[in-house]
Specification:
The chain contains 27 helices and 30 strands. It has 813 residues and is an alpha/beta fold. It has 4 domains: 142 residues, Acetylglutamate kinase-like (Carbamate kinase, 3-Layer(aba) Sandwich); 152 residues, VC0802-like; 144 residues, 3-Layer(aba) Sandwich (Rossmann fold), CATH 3.40.50; 181 residues, Dihydrodipicolinate Reductase, domain 2 (2-Layer Sandwich), CATH 3.30.360.10. An 8-stranded mixed beta sheet has the order 3-5-2-1-8-10-11-9, with helices on both faces. The chain is elongated. It starts with a strand and ends with a helix. The structure holds adenosine-5'-diphosphate (ADP) and aspartyl phosphate. Adenosine-5'-diphosphate (ADP) binds next to strand 12. Homotetramer.
């Protein structure tokens, strides 16, 4: 004896029903088969809607019934040969006439009882099972339609009836002989009470019908045929890389389904488990796929967790009060009150201080629960022993499930670490003593992100998805995008990182693509929506994607001002923009503190030395216990380029212009020439080394005549031309001394200064060419000979690569 159940998706279309037929055809053995079918996909929802529309006086229920009727008639016409269609067509019409009569009564009475709802919903399975049975009979698969309402006996809890197993088993056994080769088609979901009134077994209850038959007939297997290839590690509609679990224990499957894995209705497993009947989940549309076998004694070879699931629409009810401590009876009253209102508790937590108890319940009954509890605890509330009941809305439960959890320490640490890093606030936590499940209550808006984060953490050793938002498509930004495009496949293959650019903006336009922008089609940005910085930030926050990294490749003040909002949502920031780190010390410190508090990254390596590993190295030294005593550095790629190329043959202004044209300067070259940029860099280094330094405290021995620094950038160039003699003098004096000019930054004992110096040939700074930078760290460990970092310190390509490296670093946390 085998029992097979085909869900709504498996009978939703004529083609689906044809697939059911071929599965049954392939099955035909000498064993008897019981086939349970659900209503055609979505029909139960629509029937429910008919009832609610009628009850609220909305006459459109008639149109809805019309369209449901049409769908069934079309289905029968397509499946059953014309010559023998009439009896099934008239059955369908007669059923819908009856449904319409019931809905008309509901419409007139404006009353919709649970009993009537059960009756209305029962039409779905009645009809589908008749259509399937007729189709099979007319296509050589002889079968008998069996009325489940005559054999499954329940109490009168119409919408979630409790089965009377002794009576049901007896009735089923009397009608289906164990030894036969028959095939029975049974409508799922529906039953009847002792008085013969229709009841239903709860939404999704066709699975349960199948389990009831399987248990009564001691079937060798219960097969649940659906539209996915088994029970998966997470809901495949939420998690793209969810995997099929090939074997799972009854208990694990029960936990997963109890916590929302819709593929199987939770009560289904109980009767199967009692008789050790394996439950096999199979895909009607890919019958060759293995599917999932649910049975006892599963030994998992890989991982501690077998799946993740979630339940939406949860409210958290909190009972709190100092009067509760040490006094027995509060929880008894709480749960008794909820039970007396037939409120099912999904999750419970209690603070060890006994000062508060939280329960998670279905949101739709939260108001009823609060009312009942406020009444039950009125005495305690009036005396201030207990606070008025608090209800929190818009919550969901996520659950990690796995039998192996109990043998492994660290699962919850890993779970909450991953949630925390992604800014997902946990409102309540519960872990059953069986240690088969850890569940957490979180905001519903965070569920998709949370499930994906956890799935990645526990199942996707293959790769981690990183979602990048970039503002700035100038010199550095465009090189960065080109580098990302070039490296995407490499990163996925070699570093297990799937780097997706989700948002790009420049000062004019912004473009978003939730599944990743195709970097071959960046011209789409030109016709994208107008840039609005606040809207860009809001969008990042509302998209709420895991492992989000915001990349600032601008020199904009307003962009730098958004970092705090991003950290609040645990979004990492990678900044090429120096404004934030060189702003007031308190702001720099505040931003760094926020990033640390939110377990997120704030990385700005390219603020000093472009792609050179300067800040990273400094931090490595500090983290390993060293201390930075002095820093001597040439930090301006622009000034180096200028002094390395200026020899008096071309004007100083011409050489500066060349540096700007080749992309080495800041957008405003006066920031380089006047020394401000170097001041910012040495200040950032000093701050990273632990100094509390402000810009005003840095001494600047500027070599620029004051007149060059006034007015516009054009004035700046023309004034430099006029001051050519001054620049020439600086050059000839240095050359006469056998020295070279370098713009040097020094930091020692909490003080910093910048200025032009003549460097003699023995000095580390002498042999600096092109746009090179050099940094010397004198530390406790590098006392006499400094640690030296040297190389190109400007240029779009190297700066972009530094930003890119920071993105990867942020992604690897
Ligand atoms: N962990 C999970 N594994 C497999 N499917 C899941 C899981 N969680 C949710 N689902 C969803 O359950 C659906 C199957 O359940 P359901 O719609 O009730 O099917 P049927 O129509 O066959 O009764 C799948 O299409 C899938 O989207
Ligand atoms: N048709 C019912 C019963 C059922 O189990 O359906 P499905 O197998 O499509 O989940 C419902 O939608 O609740």
């Amino acid at each position: 004896m085998q029992v097979l159940k085909f869900g709504g998706s498996s009978v939703a279309t004529p083609d689906a029903i044809r697939s059911v037929a071929s599965i049954l055809q392939a099955k035909k053995t000498n064993e008897p088969l019981v086939v349970v079918v659900s209503a055609l996909g979505k029909i139960t929802d629509q029937l429910l809607q008919c009832g609610s529309l009628a009850a609220t006086g909305n006459v459109t229920y008639k149109e809805l019934i019309q369209s449901i009727t049409q769908r069934h008639l079309d289905m029968a016409r397509e499946l059953v040969p014309v010559a023998i269609q009439s009896s099934i067509l008239s059955f369908i019409i007669q059923q819908f006439n009856e449904l319409e009569d019931i809905c008309n009564s509901v419409y007139h009475l404006k009353e919709l009882s649970d009993r009537t709802i059960a009756r209305i919903l029962s039409f779905g399975e009645q009809l589908s099972s008749h259509i399937v049975s007729t189709y099979l009979n007319t296509h050589g698969i002889t079968n008998t339609w069996l009325d489940a309402t005559k054999h499954i006996v329940t109490d009168s809890n119409y919408l979630k009836a409790v089965v009377n197993f002794p009576a049901t088993n007896k009735s089923i056994q009397s009608v289906i002989p164990k030894q036969s080769d028959g095939l029975w088609i049974v409508p799922g979901f529906i039953a009847s009470d002792e008085e013969g009134r229709i009841t239903i077994l709860g939404r999704g209850g066709s699975d349960y019908t199948a389990a009831i038959f399987a248990a009564a007939l001691q079937a060798s297997v219960l097969e649940i045929w659906t539209d996915v290839s088994g029970m998966m590690t997470a809901d495949p509609r939420e998690v793209k890389h969810a995997k099929v679990i090939s074997r799972i224990s009854y208990q694990e499957a029960m936990e997963l389904s109890h916590f929302g894995a819709k593929v199987i209705y939770p009560p289904t497993l109980q009767p199967a488990m009692q008789l050790n009947i394996p439950v096999w989940i199979k895909n009607t549309f890919a019958p060759e796929d293995h599917g999932t076998i649910i049975e006892s004694n599963i030994v998992h070879t890989k991982g501690t967790i077998c799946g993740i699931s979630s339940i939406a629409n949860i409210s958290l009810i909190s009972l709190e009060g100092s009067g509760m401590i040490g006094i027995p009876g509060y929880s008894k009253l709480l749960f008794e009150t909820l039970a007396s209102c037939e409120i099912n508790v999904i999750l419970i937590t209690q603070a060890s201080s006994e000062h508060s108890i939280c329960v998670g319940i279905e949101a739709s009954i939260a108001t009823k629960a609060k009312k009942a509890l406020d009444k039950a605890f009125a005495y305690e509330i009036n005396r201030g022993m207990v606070n008025p009941i608090v209800v929190e809305q818009d919550l969901s439960i996520i659950a990690l499930v796995g039998d192996n959890m109990k043998n492994h320490a660290g699962t919850s640490g890993k779970m909450f670490g991953a949630l925390g890093r992604n800014g997902i606030n946990v409102r309540a936590i519960s872990q059953g003593s069986s240690e088969r499940n850890i569940s957490a209550v979180i905001a519903s808006a965070d569920v998709k992100k949370a499930i994906n984060v956890l799935h990645e953490e526990f199942f996707e050793t293959t790769y981690k998805q990183v979602n990048v938002f970039i503002i700035g498509t100038g010199n550095v930004g465009s090189r960065l995008l080109a580098q990302i495009k070039q490296q995407q496949a490499y990163l996925q293959k070699n570093a297990n990182i799937q780097l997706r650019v989700i948002g790009i903006a420049n000062s004019r336009r912004m473009l978003f693509e939730e599944h990743g922008i195709d970097l071959n089609q960046l011209d789409r940005l030109d016709s994208a929506e107008p840039m609005d910085l606040q809207a860009f930030i809001n969008r990042i926050q509302t998209m709420n994607l895991r492992n989000s990294v915001f990349v600032d490749v601008t020199a904009s003040n307003s962009v730098a001002n958004t970092y705090a909002d991003l950290f609040l949502k645990s979004i990492s920031v990678v900044a090429c923009n120096k404004i934030a780190c060189s702003s007031a010390y308190n702001n720099y410190q505040h931003l760094k503190g926020m990033a640390t508090d939110r377990h997120t990254s704030f990385l700005f390596e390219t603020n000093v030395g472009a792609g050179l590993p300067v800040i990273g190295t400094l931090n490595d030294l500090l983290r390993s216990g060293d201390a930075i005593n002095e820093i001597h550095a040439v930090l301006s790629g622009t000034l180096n380029f200028v002094f390395n190329n200026y020899d008096g043959t071309r004007s100083f202004a011409t050489v500066v212009k060349q540096a700007q044209d080749e992309g080495y300067t800041e957008p405003d070259p006066r920031l380089d020439l006047g020394g401000t940029d170097v001041m910012r860099k040495i200040m950032i280094l000093a701050r990273e080394a632990g100094a509390r330094l402000e810009m005003e405290q840095i001494v600047n021995h500027s070599f620029m005549p004051a007149s060059c620094m006034e007015g516009s950038v054009e004035n700046f160039y023309s004034e430099m031309e006029r001051q050519e003699a001054h620049f020439k003098k600086l050059y000839t004096e240095a050359t006469a001394n056998g020295k070279k000019l370098k713009f040097v930054a020094n930091y020692k004992n909490g003080e910093a200064a910048v200025g032009l110096q003549q460097i003699d040939p023995q000095h580390d700074f002498y042999h600096l060419y092109g746009k090179d930078n050099i940094v010397l760290f004198y530390t406790n460990r590098y006392k006499d000979q400094p640690m030296v970092i040297k190389g190109a310190g400007a240029g779009a390509e190297v700066t972009a690569s530094g930003v890119f490296a920071d993105i990867i670093r942020a992604a690897s946390v």
